[in-house]
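Recap slide: ABC transporter permease subunit, sequence and predicted structure.
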Amino acid sequence: MSRAERTLWSGAALILLIPAWYLAAAQATFIESPFAVLAALPHFLSDPATWSNIGLTLGRVVAGLSLGVVAGFAAAFVMSRSRFMGDVLGWYVIAALRTPSAIAAILALAIFKGSEVGYILVVAFITFPYMAMGMRDGLNSADNELDEMSRIYHLGLLTQVRHVWAPYVAPYIFASLRNAHALAWKVIVVAEIFGAARAGFGAKFEHAWEYMFMIEVHLWLLVFMAIVLIAEYGLIRTLEKHTFRWRKEA
């Protein structure tokens, strides 16, 4: 199947959601008609407050996810190089991996009293174990003879990362990054709601839900899905295709 055909089928799948949404709205009390929501969309998007709240949440996600990626890389590198440190850090990684997002959000916001640091750290705490586990599996899959080759040719650390380790771990990095990215958006919304944030996506969603502004609830949901899909397909998968551009397309 060509790229154009795949794009066409993907677009058709999205369009099919509209009649399903319409039928659901006809049967449920708290689901607005897609036509009413789409009619309100231009005014919603033209409001500067909408973009300031989106920008605030986006900044929290980017900062927290970046911190989680760096921490995950560091933990994975240490665990793959030392069996002792792998055993020690493995407990922390598993504990973070099994911690419910809502519990982590409540604890972080209670410790940091709802400050910006709390929002960023809860995203980092939830996403870092996914990066650590994926990166560790990638490093462990690398051929040990490549390490020996690196030592024989006295390759520097950056050269080893670029030409020896990166080709092995890149698929694991992108797989982990997709999971971590999706989880980051989910946990930040939970954190903003539980943390009683005054601004941000979760705060405005919770405000609209509390006062039963159902069209606004739907608009925030649409924006949330649009941002996640744009980041997934417009950024992460584009970067992945560029990284693996040498592969033949199936």
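The chain has a mean pLDDT of 84.
The CA atoms of residues 30 and 214 lie 7 Å apart.
(End of recap.)
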